[in-house]
Each structure stands twice: as C-alpha cells, then as structure tokens.
C-alpha cells in the first residue's frame, strides 16, 4: 500500500474514526484503524470497539492500492503535529508503516488487515431519512437525560419508537436516568411505518452528534431490531 494525502484531509478523517477507539484494549487490533487505499483514489478508514463502527472515506493520490491496520491514536497524534499543508506519504509493507512528510519520517508497527473485526450489518429492513437539523434537535433535547449507570444498561441511550399521538403517526425519542425524563416527538418519517423499537447507545449518540456539525442536508437511517446505521455521506 502506498498513498499520498494532504495533512488536513488525513487529520479530518482520522478525527472521525479514532474517537471510537478505547485507549485501553485487551484485544490489540481494536486499538488500530483499518486503512484501505483504493485504485479509485480513496483512502478508506474504519475503527470499531465491537459495539460501534465508524467508516470514513477521503481523497488521496494512490500509487499502490492495499490495506493495513495501524495504531489509531498514534497516527492521529502524528498527523496533528505535522506542519500545516504538508503532503503525507503512507507506505505499508512487511508489517511496518512508514509515514513521510517533508523531513519528518515515522515508522509504526502494523497488524494484518484480515484480523480486523468488521461488524456484520445483516438485513436492515427499515429505511428513512431525517434532516441534519432535526436529528441535532432530537439528540440535543434528550441526551442530557441518558443514564451513566452501567448496571442499568437499558437506560444508557436514546429510545426511538413509532406511535400514534392524537391519531397522528409520530416518531418519539426518549431518554431517562430514572430521575428525569426527556422526550421529543416529531412527525413520523416516510419509511418508518414498521420500525422496531431501538435504543441508540450513549457512545453512538455522542459520536453521531460530533459528525452532524460537519454535514448538511439529510441523514439516511437504516435499522433492524438489533442494529442501526447512520449514513452521513462519506462517514457512516
């Protein structure tokens, strides 16, 4: 794998995915970000904690397509400290990744791409769209009430469900910590008629809210009874 990318572009993509990676991991590869350089001139990035997975894609000059995994936080720290406007060359071979930018040169250990866990989406039968502003409002008006007690895991998120309110079909979002309750009701989006009740975990809510500040338009939502996917264009 060999690709060249502008420092700001690399930093933006890494900032999206590295925050899902825990600082301490008993499984070494979960500390890594998956990098895949494609022949179409894209550098795809993926990180996961086995519960939440974030994918992002940025433009790059790809000389040799390929993929590898490297420490997410280390690569992010290196990119952050490089000079503004630097062109960063990423080369991976024989268990090492070399990062070159101007006179700076770094070498990091890698782990095989085949060992990287990918969350299987399965079938996601319910599909609908929400505007970015509306999704921001839903999160901002409910997430303060999400419980932080790990023993009451069923309160550690925002509960999304469809219902009827005065004969009108609606989508409701609710969060509670057992002492306070926050609830938002909006008109049911097209496609959400048979939506199952789901709880969006606190960590997913936090990461999604950060990404929403960088996009416009609408967000595609697809879900089943056990998984939910938010499509924000280049970031998923």
From TrEMBL:
Coiled coil stretches, renumbered: none
GO biological process, one term: DNA strand elongation involved in DNA replication
InterPro entries: DNA_clamp_sf, DNA_polIII_beta, DNA_polIII_beta_cen, DNA_polIII_beta_N
This protein's record includes keyword DNA-binding: yes
GO cellular component: cytoplasm; DNA polymerase III complex
Entry keyword set: Cytoplasm, DNA replication, DNA-binding, DNA-directed DNA polymerase, Nucleotidyltransferase, Transferase
All copies of domain DNA polymerase III beta sliding clamp N-terminal, residue ranges: 1-119
Taxonomic superkingdom: Bacteria
SMART domains documented for this protein: POL3Bc
Compartment annotation: Cytoplasm
Residue intervals passing through the bilayer: none
GO-annotated molecular function: 3'-5' exonuclease activity; DNA binding; DNA-directed DNA polymerase activity
Domain DNA polymerase III beta sliding clamp central intervals: 130-234
Family named by the database record: Belongs to the beta sliding clamp family.
Protein known as: Beta sliding clamp
């Amino acid at each position: 794998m060999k690709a060249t990318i502008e420092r700001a572009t690399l930093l933006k993509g890494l900032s999206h995915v590295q925050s899902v990676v825990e600082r301490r991991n008993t499984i070494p590869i979960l500390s890594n970000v998956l990098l895949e350089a494609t022949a179409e001139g894209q550098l795809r990035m993926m990180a996961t904690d086995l519960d939440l997975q974030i994918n992002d894609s940025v433009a790059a000059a790809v000389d040799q397509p390929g993929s590898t995994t490297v420490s997410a936080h280390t690569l992010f720290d290196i990119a952050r400290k490089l000079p503004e406007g630097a062109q960063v060359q990423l080369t991976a071979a024989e268990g090492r990744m070399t990062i070159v930018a101007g006179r700076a040169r770094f070498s990091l250990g890698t782990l095989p791409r085949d060992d990287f866990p990918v969350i299987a989406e399965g079938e996601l039968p319910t599909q609908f769209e929400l505007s970015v502003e509306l999704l921001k409002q839903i999160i901002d008006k409910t997430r303060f009430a999400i419980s932080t007690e790990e023993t009451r895991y069923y309160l550690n998120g925002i509960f999304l469900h469809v219902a009827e309110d005065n004969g009108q079909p609606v989508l409701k979002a609710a969060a509670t910590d057992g002492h306070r309750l926050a609830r938002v009701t909006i008109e049911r989006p097209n496609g959400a008629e048979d939506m199952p009740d789901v709880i969006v975990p606190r960590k997913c809510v936090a990461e999604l809210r950060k990404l929403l500040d960088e996009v416009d338009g609408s967000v595609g939502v697809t879900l089943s009874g056990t998984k939910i996917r938010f499509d924000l264009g280049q970031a998923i």
